[in-house]
Queue: 2 jobs
Job 1
Amino acid sequence: MSRSKILFQLSGSIACFKACSLLSMLVKAGHEVEVVATASALKFVGEATLEGLTGRRVHTSTFESGSYMQHIHLMRWADAIVLCPASANTIAKFAAGIGDDLVTTLFLAHDFKKPYLVAPAMNQSMYAHPATRSALEKISGWGLTILPTGFGTLACGENGDGRMLEPDEIFAAIARATSLPNSELSTDAIRVLNSDKHILITAGGTEEPIDGVRSITNTSTGRTGAELAVKLASQGFAVTLLHAKNAVTPAEISKEQRIKSKTFTSFVSLQTLLSETLSEQNFDAVIHLAAVADYSLAEVESNGAVTKAPIKGKIDSGEELTLKLKKNPKLIDTIKSQAPNAKVIAFKLTRTPSAEERADAVELLAKHANADYIVHNDFEEIGEGHHPFTIYAQTKEIKKANGAAALALALADLIGANP
Ligand SMILES: Cc1cc2nc3c(=O)[nH]c(=O)nc-3n(C[C@H](O)[C@H](O)[C@H](O)COP(=O)(O)O)c2cc1C
């Protein structure tokens, strides 16, 4: 379990009371926390509160008697540094290289190899002020992590931007910076951690047109893909769902703001949509569940006449219709090259009671698909309330899950922020 030494600094903002909850969370999670407060911060929250929360003395002055060279020692000691709340004044002093109190002097002694998180908290006019904007830009350029602010009612009674993130959200950002395992985080914190991760899911079966009214398709409903989309969005991920025109799309899909959905019909339309989507945006993971036709129509022979498919209009029904199919390339084999930084998750559905045949199918897919993980399920095992999935890293079994919800959680762990 990873425990960190956190140098927690407060500057003068009404949000100091929120910083106290965060301090308590950090201490409860087992981190060692040293607190430094500006003189203004101590007008908002008392030393006794800060000491009570951490069980340690609060550092307030560069020239404290008996604490020689504290500005160097504390910086050396820390694994990560947090300025929370970050006042407009202290942010501006950072950018100007001023060191007139312990917080700013510590920053001048900062070791830029260590994570330094800044959680701004201020009135919207202060936050929008050019001095604040350029100071934030400057210190961000130096490598500090500037956390976003929330929009809402501010302490001054106005509505706007500049509200400090909630303690849970800042806790998540610290966890990311210090690699705290997911198991240590609350659900809200996990949501925040995942919030800048994008997942692309393909779901449902392609439909290969014969003519304007007929097609060849498969029995895939797209239900598992839709369930994964909903569950992963509820875990904080931003999800793009490419689903077949006739796929199952529960109401949550349209209600959930974190899901963007697009439809496809044929193999070619999915292939085009997939390439466009992957070139428009970077994804952290691509979960490719769509049941893609192995063959598309090449030609149709009807009443002795051979026509290139698909045929416009409707073929007159004669005695015999001969369809010539052409093999489609495997889309899964192309995803990694189009999205080299994404974790690619391939699916294999088999229909055999033989464990050996199932293993062979996974092995074959692992050989040609450049996928990070393969999820296998077998039609024979699917029943009421029972839908087992096995996740493989190449051909090595790593996890089992029963049902789409459990599968989504297992995949969220593999895709999530803290590997
Ligand atoms: C009630 C009250 C609330 C304040 N809230 C904030 C705030 O949220 N953000 C901020 O940047 N300044 C705020 N200020 C102003 C700062 O406390 C002031 O600029 C102070 O000098 C900051 O000092 P420091 O950066 O050394 O901590 C507030 C002042 C008062 C009196």
Job 2
Amino acid sequence: MPRRIVLARSAGQCFGVKRACNIALAAAQGDGSVVMLGDIVHSEHVIRRIAEAGVRVVDSLADVPPGATLIVRAHGAAPEVFAEARRRGLRIVDATCPLVHEIHRMARTMAAAGYRLVVIGDHGHDEVVGIAGQADGAVVIARPEEVAERLPDRLRRVGVVVQSTQDIDNVRRILAELVPRVHELRYVDTICGPTKVHQREIRELPAQVDVMVVVGSFKSANTCRLTEISRAVNPRTHQVTDAAGLDPAWFAGATTVGVTAGASTPDEIIAAVVAALETLPG
Ligand code: SF4
């Protein structure tokens, strides 16, 4: 029987990542050295394409030559990174996703209104570091059990924003821990629209297929989260970075296969995975 492949409508790169890649590729056309602080997105394929266009990735602003162009990635950066880049005389090309800029604006507004900022997000993730950098004394919370540990005293006013790609269930659990500890809690739902569509589909599609394939880098928090959610619904969930990672043994007896991809995965990689699945022996 031919196998049916169902591709999630939301699979792949969101507009913020596509926009950042286009900005980086356009910046690479100009004269002089073009650098980026860290990888543009957590996708090996996108990183290769950007590097081939001539953009050099550095780990620290200290490695950037004076007068170079610095591309700020879709994840954004903390204000001190911008300040330091200006101090070094760099030309800044800001490819921060507009939705991440909106989270920064919310974080600053709440801090200015006297709320202690809490960022629900993954520790050390670049986007989270950039958001937390918008307010002095911001507290990052990744898991519900961290609430008591990081906010041991009852607080008067707390403002909460969320990393754009967080899982809503995790956010709900953290909020439930915060409520009894805070006199006045202000929560702004900053999970972005593309992530919400992804999260809705990833709860529905795995239940409708025999096997689920999630395409994306193991370094991408967003892709790994999709895999985790999918696996909870359908244990026959596998993550691959590209078509070469597919193992025919995973699909034994499967008549329907669902495919989705993280927000950093390029369309051509997803298309290649779908094409490979169509030709795998049944
Ligand atoms: S995941 Fe959302 S916030 Fe992040 S780059 Fe994409 S659209 Fe922007």
